[in-house]
Write a structure and sequence with these properties.
There is one protein chain. This protein is an alpha/beta fold. The chain has two domains: 193 residues, 3-Layer(aba) Sandwich (Rossmann fold); 181 residues, Rossmann fold, CATH 3.40.50. 45% of the residues lie in helices and 16% in strands. It has 16 helices and 13 strands. The relative contact order is 0.13. The C terminus is likely disordered.
């Protein structure tokens, strides 16, 4: 089988990691050949595009999906159809709202959309996500990473039998070496004898960092000397820095920026927090599970499918700073309970979120799409 995978690349994040890791397993264990069509964004130059570079290093054929007019959907559909004609894939797999929309209208091969979550980040994103919902039913199968997204796909008109749950996955053996706690404390000037909390991810509104900073006020009051490391960059950074200053937390919060060793820093934390308002199935949680770092997260998207409150971590309502602060204090104060929950999370990782389980679920979805593709779909065109 040959798959043409179409997705954007803003940086080396969760969707990019998942796509390449899955493609490697499928190539090595199931004989699936994957060609990657990468949609560059303004955030990264073509020469430095991490997905293009890493895919080629791993032996995959990868090409930039370049449009002269970036948001011209007709041009995008025609470009995708040319790629389908060139590579003759058995299936086109799209990830991301724009890729989904283009694949929904391109002809020549069955299409599978992969939903990892909608963020409603700004007006442009909201429009394309609305269009994504309106065109989902055109795909021959829809892959979702959470029960919440499964329900959303069905509400958008996709037949339940064409919606497939394919979990994100991680191979702990392939993770880079953990950063040591002492090294991180030294880097940010933290007292190694005091609690160290961290958040790793893009600084955008849906990620909930403003609520985290409010919650950390309570943590700093109840646990003097506690530190918060915020790893990542994004449009919220300036506002977050002002909020930290206004609340008198400048000596307790460190902004570390976008780091190549971001996932490795998770291992150095006493606890990791995910304060999001919206998530699909966050890769960062799987990385925390693998490194044995306790997790406090909000009950959104696919997070409850991964994390059970009181068993493998802490879950709190999104936007509730007092509840978030209380959970963080508990995780940082009761080290034995935190480690018990982290150990349980590693068991859950090994039982449910392996690359093999992900790949076999993906194969079921793709084979269903290829076997059930309506004949009229093959002749459809975008006019």
């Amino acid at each position: 089988m040959r798959a043409l995978s179409l997705l954007p690349c803003r940086f080396w994040g969760g969707p990019e990691k998942q796509t390449l890791r899955l493609a490697a397993w499928l190539r090595d264990h199931a004989g699936v050949e994957t060609v990657l069509a990468v949609m560059p964004t303004d955030a990264v130059s073509l020469d430095d595009n991490p997905l293009l570079l890493r895919a080629r290093e791993a032996g995959f054929e990868a090409a930039p999906f370049l449009q002269s007019r970036r948001y011209d959907l007709i041009e995008g559909v025609r470009l995708l159809q040319r790629l389908v004609g060139r590579y003759r894939p058995d299936v086109v797999c799209a990830t991301g709202y724009k890729a989904d929309v283009l694949a929904a209208w391109a002809s020549g091969a069955p299409s599978v959309a992969t939903l990892r979550g909608w963020t409603a980040q700004d007006a442009k994103v909201r429009f394309f996500e609305w269009l994504d919902r309106r065109t989902l039913r055109r795909h021959d199968a829809v892959i979702v990473v959470s029960n919440t997204l499964r329900d959303a796909a069905i509400r958008a008109g996709v037949a339940p039998a064409r919606v497939f749950w394919v979990p994100n996955a991680i191979d702990p053996a392939q993770l880079p070496a953990a950063r040591q706690r002492e090294d991180l404390c030294r880097e940010i000037g933290a007292d190694p004898g005091r609690p160290l909390l961290g958040a790793v991810g893009r600084l955008s509104p849906e990620k909930g960092h403003r609520v985290l900073v409010d919650a950390f006020c309570d943590v700093a009051r109840r646990l003097p000397g506690a530190r918060l490391a915020i790893v990542g960059d994004g449009p919220e950074e300036a506002a977050l820095r002002r909020q930290v200053g206004t609340l008198g937390l400048a000596g307790h919060v460190t902004f570390m920026g976008l780091r190549a060793d971001g996932q490795q820093l998770i291992a150095a934390l006493d606890a990791m927090v995910l304060p999001s308002f919206s998530e699909g199935m966050p890769n960062v949680l799987l990385e925390a599970f693998a490194y044995g770092t306790p997790v406090v997260a909000t009950r959104v998207g696919g997070v409850p499918d991964m994390l059970a409150d009181g068993d493998s971590g802490w879950l709190v309502p999104a936007g509730d700073a007092p509840r978030l602060g209380a959970a963080l204090v508990e995780a940082l104060q009761d080290r034995s309970e935190a480690q018990r929950r982290a150990a349980r999370a590693r068991v859950v990782l090994a039982e449910r979120f392996t690359v093999e389980k992900q790949a076999r679920a993906w194969l079921s979805a793709v084979e269903a799409a290829v076997d059930t593709k309506p004949a009229s779909r093959a002749d459809a065109s975008f006019r």
